[in-house]
Amino acid sequence: MKSCAIVILNFNGEKVLPIFLPSVIQHSKFDIWIIDNASTDQSLQLIKNNFPEVHLIQLKSNFGFAGGYNWGLEELRGKYANFLLLNSDVEVSLDWDQNLVSWLENHEDFAAVQPKILSWQEKNKFDYAGAGGGFLDALGYPYCRGRIWNSIEEDRNQYNDSIQVDWSSGACMLIRADDFFEQEGFDAHFFAHMEEIDLCWRLRLSGRKIGYIGGVHVFHQGGATLSRSNPKKLYLNIRNSLGMLYKNLPTITFFLIFTLKMVLEMASALGYIFSGEKESSKAVFRGYSDFFSTRSVYHKTKIKRPDLVISRSGPVRFIFWHFFVLRKKTFSQL
Questions:
Q1: Glycosyltransferase 2-like domain spans which residues (predicted)?
Q2: Beta strand 209-220 with 162-165: parallel, antiparallel or unpaired?
Q3: What is the pLDDT of residues 247-257, one digit of tens each?
Q4: 43/88 Cα distance (integer angstroms)
Q5: Cα dist. 333→53, 153, 280, 319 in Å?
Q6: Alpha carbon distance 304, 323 (integer Å)
């Protein structure tokens, strides 16, 4: 069995692959695989013609981020000890893959780890997805060192440490193959967005830790599939967040949190209406509606050893209150 496979999920990446794939090939030691989610552009031909060293797995349909990785990684089961999942719009740095794998191999109680993720467009700033390590508040809202809601910090080496976090970003995530398959991978019902946070939550409930290494960095373009302001992305985040909470919390706790979240997010939906963003408002309502109509597909996470559960490690209980009411815009202010 080989140590690691770098695995990139592609869907219609004809424009981004020529920009970002060369850095992965140049700076990586391990095998590079691309899982193609039934692209309809010329990206498959581009890969075959210009990047013959890259291995290719072709899926027959677009299964989204979650299903695409699940089906593709199944093809690699038993061949690699670790999977380094990488977005197609990420530029990597020298020895990035070796340093991540070396760290994980030396920390047996950790299931997954991410590097420092910086913006490709503004390389002195953190990226939205993962930044300097991700946490969850009590309502399931994610936030990061270096990024709280839409407030992005400059990178001044303030997060160059290695710490335990609540979740690892799917933009660049090293995970042990055994842990991935033990959890049956990502929840394919999510399709896209929040699936890596859900997987990390399930890993923590099983007693496995999630890490962050600030000594390794990559640059993420972001928004290659959906922009952050896209109503479809908002819809997926709303629906999938509710699904994640439903799966991973005790039933009574879930309904208490659900009630508070619904008050906050319905108020947000009204705000979208008053600001003329009707499609975003519809996305919020649709997210709740679709969660209710499909919640039976989300299976409760079974906790085998309650004494091993890894709790949330973030500094605040309600990030919404700190950001919007107390006006704390940076992680250091928390």
A1: 6-168
A2: antiparallel
A3: 999 999 999 99
A4: 11
A5: 46, 12, 30, 12
A6: 36
- The range of the structural domain enclosing residue 52 comes to 2-220
Contact 97, 28 (CB under 8 A): yes
The residues near 213 (Cβ < 8 Å, ≥ 6 apart) are 99, 100, 103, 113, 114, 115, 116, 162
**Within 10 A of 281 (CB to CB), how many other CB atoms are there?**
21
Q: Is residue 270 part of a domain?
A: no
The half-sphere exposure of 251 on its side-chain side, counting CA atoms within 13 A, is 4
**CATH number, domain containing residue 166:** 3.90.550.10
Secondary structure (3-state) at 68: helix
- Residue 210 CA to residue 226 CA, distance in Å, equals 26
Q: Residue 271 corresponds to which tokens in the numbers above?
A: 């705000």
Identity of the amino acid at 12: N
User: Taking the alpha carbons of 48, 50, 53, 59 in that order, is the dihedral positive or negative?
Assistant: negative
Q: How far apart are CA 312 and CA 321, in angstroms?
A: 18
Bridge partners of residue 175, in order along the sequence? 83, 112
As for how many domains the chain has, the answer is 1
Alpha carbon distance 197, 175 (integer Å): 13
For the chain, the average pLDDT equals 96
Q: Which residues contact 94 (CB under 8 A, 6 or more apart)?
A: 27
- Determine, yes or no, domain membership for 323: no
Sign of CA dihedral 230, 236, 242, 248: negative
d(Cα 183, Cα 206) in Å, to the nearest integer?
Answer: 9
Per-residue pLDDT tens digits for 177-186: 999 999 999 9
Range of weakest confidence among 51-55, 148-152, 222-226, 227-231: 222-226
CA gap 75, 109 in Å, rounded: 26
Q: What token pair was written down for 303?
A: 């906790």
- 267 part of a folded domain: no
* Mutual angle of helices 231-248 and 278-294, in 10-degree steps: 30
Q: Is residue 61 part of a domain?
A: yes
H or E element in which residue 211 lies: strand 209-220
